[in-house]
Design brief:
The chain is α+β, with helices and mostly antiparallel strands and about 200 residues long. The chain folds into two domains: about 1-30, no CATH class; about 65-195, 2-Layer Sandwich (HIT family, subunit A). Helix content is about 30%, strand content about 15%. It has six helices and seven strands. Strands 3-4-5-7-6 form a five-stranded antiparallel beta sheet, with helices on both faces. Strands 1-2 form a two-stranded antiparallel sheet. Helix 4 (about 110-130) crosses helix 6 (about 180-195). The longest helix is centred in the middle third of the chain and has 22 residues, at about 110-130. The chain starts with 7 loop residues before the first strand and ends with a helix.
């Protein structure tokens, strides 16, 4: 076996062979996600080519309720709403956010803060009733440096957790297995929202 033909150790000891004559493997596994290209290439806040800054949360919050299913909106309140994360960490990963375009938690009014808390409690109750998670991660990333993907519009994440949900697939295979489509998850949570 020549040096080029020898397997190379990749992440977590995975062995990579020569890549179909394309050259020496680089040791990285690849998960192809062409559906994200529209998100990557789409207009961004502050994009010089966009006529005005684009905030996907503002677009969804201003959309008519008839588009809630398409926009993955779970529930709407007077000051806040809840929608599923388009790129969830776990099934049922949703976000609670104000309609108002504010970046920082301290910018919320007392009424917005109270409704955000009430929606978070409601989401926990509903998700427990429909999918019985063992726990939750709840939090906000305030600012780009803290990891906020859309830092200009405050949003609180609620991620259901189950024992073993960080099993070998994400740890070794660097792949998250999602057992349910987003539309099905949205329908299940939205249908139960007003029943409990």
């Amino acid at each position: 076996m020549s040096e080029v033909d020898e397997p190379i150790a990749g992440p977590a000891g995975v062995q990579f062979e020569e890549q179909q004559g394309v050259g020496r493997p680089d040791g990285l596994a690849r998960l192809w996600t062409p559906h994200r290209l529209a998100y990557v290439q789409g207009p961004k806040s502050g994009d010089e080519q966009a006529e005005e800054p684009v905030c996907p949360f503002c677009r969804v919050s201003a959309a008519p309720a008839a588009e809630d299913q398409e926009n993955l909106v779970v529930a709407r309140g007077d000051r806040v709403f809840a929608l599923l994360n388009l790129y969830p960490y776990n099934p049922g990963h949703l976000m609670v956010l104000p309609y108002r375009h504010v970046a920082d938690y301290t910018e919320l009014t007392l009424e917005e803060t109270a409704e955000l808390a009430a929606f978070t409690r409601r989401a926990m109750t509903v998700i427990r009733s429909v999918s019985a998670p063992h726990g939750f991660n709840i939090g906000m990333n305030q600012g780009s440096a803290a990891g906020a993907g859309i830092a200009a519009h405050l949003h609180q994440h609620l991620v259901p957790r189950w024992g073993g949900d960080a099993n070998f697939m994400p740890v070794i295979g660097h792949t998250k297995v999602m057992p349910q489509l987003l539309g099905q998850t949205r329908a299940m949570i939205a249908d139960a929202w007003d029943l409990l």
